[in-house]
Automatic annotation (TrEMBL), chains A, B:
<keyword id="KW-0547">Nucleotide-binding</keyword>
<feature type="binding site">
    <location>
        <position position="33"/>
    </location>
    <ligand>
        <name>Mg(2+) 3</name>
    </ligand>
</feature>
<feature type="binding site">
    <location>
        <position position="50"/>
    </location>
    <ligand>
        <name>Mg(2+) 2</name>
    </ligand>
</feature>
<feature type="binding site">
    <location>
        <position position="215"/>
    </location>
    <ligand>
        <name>Mg(2+) 5</name>
    </ligand>
</feature>
<keyword id="KW-0460">Magnesium</keyword>
<feature type="binding site">
    <location>
        <position position="214"/>
    </location>
    <ligand>
        <name>ATP</name>
    </ligand>
</feature>
<dbReference type="InterPro" id="IPR010918">
    <property type="entry name" value="PurM-like_C_dom"/>
</dbReference>
<dbReference type="GO" id="GO:0009229">
    <property type="term" value="P:thiamine diphosphate biosynthetic process"/>
</dbReference>
<comment type="pathway">
    <text>Cofactor biosynthesis; thiamine diphosphate biosynthesis; thiamine diphosphate from thiamine phosphate: step 1/1.</text>
</comment>
<comment type="similarity">
    <text>Belongs to the thiamine-monophosphate kinase family.</text>
</comment>
<feature type="domain" description="PurM-like C-terminal">
    <location>
        <begin position="156"/>
        <end position="268"/>
    </location>
</feature>
<keyword id="KW-0784">Thiamine biosynthesis</keyword>
<feature type="binding site">
    <location>
        <position position="78"/>
    </location>
    <ligand>
        <name>Mg(2+) 2</name>
    </ligand>
</feature>
<comment type="function">
    <text>Catalyzes the ATP-dependent phosphorylation of thiamine-monophosphate (TMP) to form thiamine-pyrophosphate (TPP), the active form of vitamin B1.</text>
</comment>
<dbReference type="InterPro" id="IPR016188">
    <property type="entry name" value="PurM-like_N"/>
</dbReference>
<keyword id="KW-0418">Kinase</keyword>
<keyword id="KW-0808">Transferase</keyword>
Length: 325, 325
């Protein structure tokens, strides 16, 4: 007699119970050794992988619905930064035995919502046990017209620096969840738990270089500058902050600029496109239009990375990681 | 001043120091948000992901050179089981702070050897910290002529069952490393640490179904049978054992048949191809020819999974996981 699902080895039953509903056609019902996927003809693939660890990237108290969505969205943000369209994703889990089955039900329900939002399906993966914290690793596949991927390299001195959305909400949201800060609006914690990947942002033909902001705006401007052998000036007061972030007060500006967990897009715009974007600083994404803000300009490399205040005075931060510039 | 490598944030310096030498052209020097990869024209992609956890899939005492190679080879084995050609791989690491930098030097040196052997390059990945054990997650991309991927489904009653190489060495090797068994040849521990993925095995046009053997031969025959709604008879004495495995004695047969960690290929062959393969039971792989052995036959589903001894008597194992058949 062929055993019913309930008699399957635990791992297989677990996969079928929770993940089969997420699987797209490439996944072969998650019952094969690998996914088989026909890439879109005439396009390049864009591939990224990110891992998240319990207590490092998410909190045990976070709603399970948002944990998987955050991981998927971080990867979608990597694709968005390259101007790529999502195609599919794979997930590996190293699970401690202490996590209840219902946690994974909610985890997958959250992922199901995001699959609909971003039109993407699970292709495959692996589950294993661990005596340590939950570790999730997600690989995302996207596609792009050959030659149209926007990279970190390509920016030049004189290009302006832009960001999507608002900066610092995720970092402040973590402090709210840690009890270090209050935010009655709930906006900040929500942004920490559910970043808004700017999938579909039309970077090709506009941006000379782009990257997603995950390590903190100042650090990531540093990465972009280093990759292009330029310096940068960031105009502190021009960095867009949400109302909830502004409400926290100026003592939290450093956290906003250096805290990370933004998953917004940092991009450089050559002078010939700058005026047009400045006139109408809104760009479309698959989740709707997003405001973009000019926050600075790329300079000669010997200038390093400078953040300036309202009166042009340099702002020095303890934790920027780039004070040696 | 642009900082030299040594001033980079720790994670970036770590990635450049250890992984840049493994990166292929798609990896964009590991300095972008994602890899950009032109898939081979007119081929389907085959994608698999596997995770390995310290103390679950490898031992802290294992030589670091073999740990990464084992993970890569397990994934290569997934591709081999589908008849796919390796194209590239991504790696995420969740690293405890206690692992020395030199461990990763050796880890990557091992991977470098396997990249040469299997003609494949690193495309990208992610590193993060953890307070738990080391968790490695690898995603592999391969390619196949459309329609030629060999799947777990496709086998029929009457097809013969075959395996590559020898069965049980990995499971016995683990017991050797745990001090439960001795093997002066070193063969068994070596097979545990370095599986031999049968990349290039010409399954298309020969096998009706295939999968890699990782959970134990009997369990995996059960999976293959279940996916095809058939039963199976396995002829115990026909299961190929290495000299080192035979030397352990018959009391270790159960471990060989149910222990896992084989990373050989289990495949079914329709009657019309069986005679020819039986005449010359050797198949080519990229690492040279490999002997294949007929170990049984697929039966009507109501027969379940039976393992028979030398005189046709049923062999009953405690740990087969399939005694309810």
């Amino acid at each position: 007699m062929i055993p019913p699902l309930s008699d399957l080895p635990r791992e297989f039953a677990f996969i079928k119970r929770h993940f089969l509903a997420l699987a797209g056609p490439a996944a072969l019902e998650l019952s094969d050794d690998a996914a088989v996927y026909t890439p879109p003809a005439g396009r390049d693939l864009v591939v990224a992988a990110d891992a998240m660890v319990e207590n490092v990237h998410f909190l045990p108290s976070d709603p399970p619905e948002t944990v998987g969505r955050k991981l998927l969205r971080c990867n979608l943000s990597d694709l968005a930064a390259m101007g790529a369209k999502p195609e599919g994703w794979l997930l590996t889990l190293a699970c401690p035995k202490t996590i209840a089955d219902s946690w994974f039900t909610a985890f997958c329900n959250g992922l199901k919502q995001d699959q609909l939002l971003f039109n993407v399906h699970l292709m495959g993966g692996d589950t294993t046990s661990t005596r340590g914290p939950l570790v999730l690793s997600l690989t995302i596949l996207g596609s792009v017209v050959p030659g149209q991927a926007v990279k970190r390299r390509g920016a030049r001195e004189g290009d302006s620096l832009w960001v999507t959305g608002t900066i610092g909400d995720g970092a402040l949201g973590l402090r709210v969840l840690q009890g270090k800060l209050t935010d009655s609006s709930g906006h900040l914690a929500n942004r920490y738990r559910l970043p808004q990947p700017r999938v579909g942002l039309p970077l090709h033909g506009l941006a000379s270089a782009a990257m997603d902001i995950s390590d903190g705006l100042l650090q990531d401007v540093g990465h972009l500058a280093r990759e292009n052998n330029v310096g940068a000036v960031i105009w502190g007061p021009q960095v867009p902050l949400s109302k909830a972030a502004q409400h926290c007060g100026p003592q939290w500006l450093e956290t906003c600029l250096t805290g990370g967990d933004d998953y917004e897009i940092l991009f450089s715009v050559p002078p010939q496109y700058d005026a047009k974007l400045s006139q109408n600083p809104v760009l479309p994404t698959v989740l709707g239009p997003v405001a973009v803000h000019k926050i600075g300009v790329l300079t000669a490399p010997e200038k390093g990375i400078q953040t300036l205040g309202a009166n042009g005075e340099p702002l020095i931060f303890k934790q920027s990681g780039w004070s040696h510039f």
